[in-house]
Design goal:
The chain has helices spanning 13-21, 23-32, 38-51, 58-63, 66-74, 83-101, 115-123, 130-144, 151-155, 172-194. Helices cover 61% and strands 0% of the residues. It has a single domain, classed as Endonuclease III, domain 1 (Orthogonal Bundle).
């Protein structure tokens, strides 16, 4: 039996275990990983599961009344800084999974023949621009062993060894290094924008 990967993204063992064992939780965490701390984004699928009665199911989320799902996201403590828009985005991703992948997140990435096919499938999901698709391609490769030929080219710089994104997080020290890298990248981008 294959060992379950370690995804120490939240600092909470139960939430990290959910990310490692439930592909939909991991995908939702990736959807939410913007404009809030990484730990919070990847912890939210655990909280969402609890608020939905103990299960995460793409078809259930896709079929929910949008206002009801937004209320679940907005309940104290909100699952994201922008609960309404992110609830809509998570629902759109779940609808995409139902319409194209039998409601199974892992069907997006399992059995890919090439890195290009993998990246194309990820980038086609709602809310996944090029950068987010590159990061998730790298995360799948580095943390879950999803490495079809050519994945490195598709992941771009996120395929490199180092601490650039959540794909490189293998423990608390790595989380701090990723945060420092992001701070430096933002400062550099800001400097170029004002120069």
């Amino acid at each position: 039996m294959a060992s379950v990967p370690t995804l120490p993204f939240t600092g909470d063992e139960a939430a990290d275990q959910l990310l490692a064992s439930d592909p939909l939780a991991l995908l939702i965490g990736m959807v939410l990983d913007q404009q809030i701390p990484m730990e919070r984004a990847f912890h939210s699928p655990y909280e969402l599961r609890e608020r939905l009665g103990g299960t995460l199911d793409a078809a259930t989320i896709a079929d929910m009344d949008p206002d009801s799902l937004a209320a679940v996201f907005a309940a104290r403590h909100a699952l994201h800084r922008f609960p309404g828009s992110m609830a809509a985005r998570v629902q759109a991703v779940c609808r995409h999974l139902v319409d194209h992948y039998g409601g199974r997140a892992e069907n997006v990435w399992q059995g890919m023949a090439t890195g290009e096919e993998l990246f194309t499938r990820i980038a086609a999901m709602p809310g996944f621009g090029k950068q987010k698709a590159q990061i998730f391609t790298a995360l799948l490769a580095k943390r879950l062993g999803v490495t079809p030929p050519g994945w490195e080219e598709q992941a771009g710089s996120y395929a490199d060894h180092g601490c650039y994104s959540v794909a490189d997080v293998d423990g608390p020290d790595a989380m701090a290094r990723v945060r420092e890298y992001k701070r430096a990248a933002k400062a550099e981008a800001k400097g170029k924008g004002t120069g």
